[in-house]
Structure formats: structure tokens, C-alpha cells
Design a protein that fits this description.
Elements lengths: L16 H10 L29 E4 L11 E3 L2 E3 L1 E8 L3 H14 L4 E2 L6 E3 L2 H4 L1 H7 L2 H11 L4 E2 L3 H4 E6 L12 E4 L5 E6 L6 E3 L2 E4 L3 H6 L1 H7 L6 E3 L7 E5 L6 E3 L2 E4 L1 E9 L11 H8 L1 H16 L1 H8 L11
Antiparallel strand pairs: 1-4, 2-3, 4-14, 5-6, 6-8, 7-17, 8-17, 9-15, 10-14, 10-17, 11-16, 12-13, 12-15
Helix pairs in contact: 1-9, 9-10, 10-11
The structure holds fe (ii) ion.
Length: 326
């Protein structure tokens, strides 16, 4: 982020009931039927196995949450709020994903809801990504980082997304912004597919505090951006750098890209042992996926919450025993 770049990141205007209903009736429809990129083949060997100590590790307590407000249960604590940057994939794996992200860019749809362009349900489009999120080594890696068993999220439309951030195309146009928001998902891994040198702006920033505090001071925080004392910047530097965020509990935004291009890959996961604590809300997804599709997605989510074993068998998802995380 340079000192001269505009940093304002508007608060997501996603709360009005009528707006959500209008978007729900308009949304839906597939856009990447002609995706014909010859993808590299997925291999478990593309999962990273070693880590340097991540620069950021913050618990829910560090964000002001009390023990009884955290996810988890007595035999399965679940209190990590954020960690990273970590590597989920080897450099070769991250480069393969970058190629896929670049190849899918033409299929990304404009969406000013949270980011400017994005693709949802990447798992259905990309055999590489489909295999990756079902790979036992990959799932063990993400589960070990968070400390609870994680599997692909049953809300597949929202489960894997690629976000594209570009500078404004006209001088008079404001830079597109990813607005301050919280996700529906509890467990979100955001991987940059761009080196930071490739763009100016495009910083992932987050508010280290409780959502009520953010809401009470949102004008001040939104205006100050990373200059606010409780706003931190995630240190993404190189292709493959990944942050884990408890997206449903942490307000975050991306500053406008003013030069170059930024691509991020976001994979959200589901804990089959804590399915009832999933924080997705119907009206969070419906404006993106359309009303009918969201109704069906919701049916699948609640099946997975009630019978996670059946969901894993049907979807060929390997089930990780909890002790394997230790
Ligand atoms: Fe987000």
C-alpha cells in the first residue's frame, strides 16, 4: 500500500431486506460452461508439509471473545481466530492454482456485493480444485492448522471462490473495493495467487476486536482503514501465502487495487463434529446464488449437519479421526 493510494473500504451494504430479496431473484446461472483450460493434474505431493512460524496467530480471546462465545465443545476446543501466512501448497502447487485462477478470469462475474469480480463453486469447474479439497493430505494439513477436523463445505457454491481485483478502467472511476464484512463461513483459508509486487493496494485488512465494537465505530474505522489502531494488515507477500480467518467472527476488507492485478483463492471448510455451530445464514447466500439454488443448498447443508457421515460417504470425502490432529 503506498501512502498516496486511496484506502477507503466501504462497509458492505448487505443488510437491507429488500435489496437482498431483489438480488436473490436476479442471481444464479452458470457462467463458465466453456472453461477448457488444460489443468495440471492434482497430486497429494503438492500439499506443503513444512512451515516457518507464522507471523500472526491470534485466538478468539485476542479479538475480545469470551470462552462461552467461542465455537467448539468441551472435548474439542476451537478457539483459533487467525493464523498466517502459512503455505497449504508447495510452490509448484501454488503456481498450478495460479494458472487455473488466471484461466478462469474470463468467466468471473461482476459482483459489487463484496468484491468486484468473482467465481463461486470453483470445485465444480476445476478438477484440480475438486481433487484438492477432497485429498486426505490436504484436509489433514488444514485440520492440523486449525485444530479441528475439516472437510469441504456442503454449501458448495460458497465453498471455493476465486476473487479478482483490478484497478479502475477509467480515470474518473473509483477503484473497486471489497467492503468491510464478515463471512458466513467459520473456517476460511485465503490464498493469494499474486505476488504483492504485482499490484498496489489490494491489502487484506481486518479489525482486531468484537463485531459490536466495529459496528459502533464503523464510520471511523472505515475512514481510517489500516491507520486505525485496531486494524491490522495480513502480510501476504508471495503466491501461495495463505491466511486462516474465522470469517464469520472477524470483520475484514480489501483495500482498492490501484495498479496491477490481484487474485485470491478462498476455500471455506466445515467441521463435521461442530456442524450445528455453522454460522451461514440463508439470506447471506441467496443474493449471490439465487433463491431456488439457495433453497437446495440449504437442504444439503442441513442433511450434512444431521448426518455428516452420510455426507462424507456420498461426496467421497475422507473422514479424519480427531486424534490424528494431535
Ligand atoms: Fe470475506
Amino acid at each position: 500500500m503506498t501512502a498516496s493510494a486511496p484506502e477507503e473500504t466501504r462497509v458492505a451494504a448487505i443488510t437491507t431486506g429488500l435489496d437482498r430479496l431483489k438480488r436473490s431473484l436476479r442471481a444464479g446461472g452458470r457462467t463458465a460452461a466453456d472453461y477448457r483450460f488444460r489443468e495440471p493434474e492434482w497430486s497429494s505431493e503438492l500439499v506443503a508439509q513444512t512451515d516457518t512460524h507464522p507471523a500472526i496467530t491470534a485466538t478468539m480471546a485476542d479479538f475480545g471473545y469470551l470462552p462461552h462465545e467461542c465455537h467448539g465443545r468441551s472435548d474439542l476446543p476451537d478457539s483459533l481466530a487467525m493464523t498466517g501466512p502459512v503455505a497449504l501448497l508447495t510452490p509448484a502447487g501454488a503456481q498450478a492454482l495460479r494458472q487455473i485462477g488466471q484461466a478462469l478470469k474470463d468467466s468471473a462475474v461482476h459482483n459489487d456485493y463484496v468484491v468486484s469480480h468473482r467465481i463461486r463453486d470453483v470445485e465444480t469447474l476445476s478438477p484440480f480444485v475438486h481433487a484438492m479439497v477432497r485429498d486426505k493430505t490436504f484436509l489433514h494439513r488444514v485440520s492440523t492448522l486449525v485444530g479441528v477436523p475439516l472437510i469441504p463445505h456442503p454449501l458448495r457454491d460458497a465453498g471455493v471462490q476465486i476473487n479478482y481485483y483490478d484497478p479502475p478502467t477509467a480515470v474518473a472511476q473509483a477503484a473497486p473495493v471489497a467492503k468491510w464484512h464478515r463471512d458466513g463461513m467459520n473456517y476460511v483459508f485465503t490464498m493469494t495467487l499474486s505476488d504483492h509486487d504485482e499490484h498496489e493496494g489490494g491489502d487484506y485488512i481486518y479489525y482486531q476486536g468484537r463485531p459490536e465494537e466495529f459496528d459502533a465505530h464503523r464510520a471511523e474505522i472505515t475512514t481510517a482503514g489500516s491507520r486505525h489502531p485496531d486494524v491490522r494488515t495480513a502480510p501476504f507477500r508471495h503466491v501461495g501465502d495463505t491466511m486462516f480467518t474465522r470469517g464469520s467472527r472477524v470483520y475484514h476488507a480489501v483495500t482498492p487495487v490501484t495498479r496491477g492485478h490481484r487474485i485470491t483463492f478462498a476455500v471455506s471448510l466445515f467441521c463435521p463434529l461442530l456442524g450445528k455451530q455453522d454460522e451461514n445464514r440463508f439470506w447471506h447466500s441467496a443474493p449471490d446464488d439465487g433463491l431456488l439454488r439457495t433453497i437446495n443448498n440449504w437442504r444439503l447443508l442441513h442433511q450434512a449437519i444431521r448426518r455428516p457421515g452420510a455426507y462424507c460417504r456420498r461426496e467421497a470425502i475422507p473422514v479424519l479421526p480427531v486424534p490424528s490432529l494431535r
